[in-house]
């Protein structure tokens, strides 16, 4: 009788062990802390799309690439009389604009200049010279200002002024800005940064 009771007890213990953890089911309850981590959201500047670039291209701030200068305005027979009067005699801040009337970028630059002058009335005078008839371009895009293409002395004077080492027009459009002391404070070829140019206009008038 004792042997039968012991046998029944052993069988019962074995069954209870199977029920308490011997199962081969490895599924994890929904509330388990071992759930797979959620994928992190793309960082700022990333697309997060498969096969797409992970970073967006940098946006160049042109104003950081602009440069200022401080040099005396040229003198001599090649300087047009209107500039001598404004810059040397009257010490009037002046923006000199060399352009090519056949260029869209020259038109865009003139529109920018006019808008800046309208917002800053009376700060600078504007003198503009169309060089379209007096320039040729090298294969690298460098402008060659050719005095032989000028038909009369007034035109030739403007061309020679553009070629002066202190001015040195090598591309059009080209801006030269002078201050109230008659110094060149800013030069730029091509389309300038509007905000930076406006700051230089305001600086010229101080």
Layout of SSEs?
Layout: H1 2-21, H2 62-65, E1 68-72, H3 81-89, E2 94-99, H4 104-119, E3 125-130, E4 135-137, E5 143-145, H5 153-163, E6 174-178, E7 183-189, H6 194-204
Helix pairs in contact: 4-6
List the main descriptive attributes of the protein structure presented here:
alpha+beta, two-stranded antiparallel sheet, globular
What's the total number of strands?
7
**Annotation field: number of helices:** 6
SSE string, helices as H and strands as E: HHEHEHEEEHEEH
What is the overall silhouette? globular
Could you tell me the mean pLDDT? 77
Helix coverage percent of residues? Answer: 25-40%
Write down the Rg.
Answer: 39 Å
Main structural class: alpha+beta
Strand portion: 15-25%
Distance between the ends: 118 Å
Pick out the low-confidence regions.
Answer: 1-11, 13-65
Output the strand order for the largest sheet.
1-7-6-2-3
* Major sheet: 5 strands, mixed
Summarize the structure.
The chain is α+β, with helices and mostly antiparallel strands and 206 residues long. The protein contains six helices and seven strands; from the N terminus they run H-H-E-H-E-H-E-E-E-H-E-E-H.
Provide an overview of this structure:
By secondary structure, this protein is of the alpha+beta class. It is 34% helix and 17% strand. The chain has 6 helices and 7 strands. It has helices at 2-21, 62-65, 81-89, 104-119, 153-163, 194-204, and strands spanning 68-72, 94-99, 125-130, 135-137, 143-145, 174-178, 183-189. The protein has a 5-stranded mixed sheet, sandwiched between helices. A two-stranded antiparallel sheet has the order 4-5. β6 (174-178) and β7 (183-189) form a beta hairpin. The termini are far apart. The relative contact order is 0.15. Residues 1-11 and 13-65 have low confidence and may be disordered.
């Amino acid at each position: 009788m004792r042997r039968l009771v012991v046998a029944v007890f052993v069988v019962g213990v074995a069954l209870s062990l199977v029920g308490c953890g011997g199962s081969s089911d490895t599924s994890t309850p929904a509330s388990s802390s071992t759930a797979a981590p959620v994928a992190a959201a793309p960082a700022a500047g990333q697309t997060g799309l498969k096969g797409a670039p992970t970073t967006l291209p940098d946006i160049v701030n042109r104003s950081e690439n602009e440069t200022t200068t401080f040099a005396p305005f040229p003198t001599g027979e090649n300087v047009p009389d209107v500039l001598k009067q404004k810059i040397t005699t009257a010490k009037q801040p002046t923006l000199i604009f060399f352009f090519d009337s056949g260029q869209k970028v020259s038109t865009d630059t003139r529109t920018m200049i006019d808008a800046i002058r309208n917002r800053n009335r009376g700060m600078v005078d504007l003198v503009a010279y169309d060089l379209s008839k007096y320039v040729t371009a090298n294969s690298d895009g460098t402008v060659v200002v050719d005095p032989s293409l000028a038909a009369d002395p007034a035109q030739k004077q403007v061309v020679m002024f553009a070629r002066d080492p202190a001015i040195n027009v090598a591309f059009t459009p080209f801006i030269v800005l002078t201050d109230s002391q008659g110094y060149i404070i800013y030069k730029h070829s091509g389309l300038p940064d509007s905000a930076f140019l406006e700051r230089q206009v305001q600086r010229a008038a101080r």
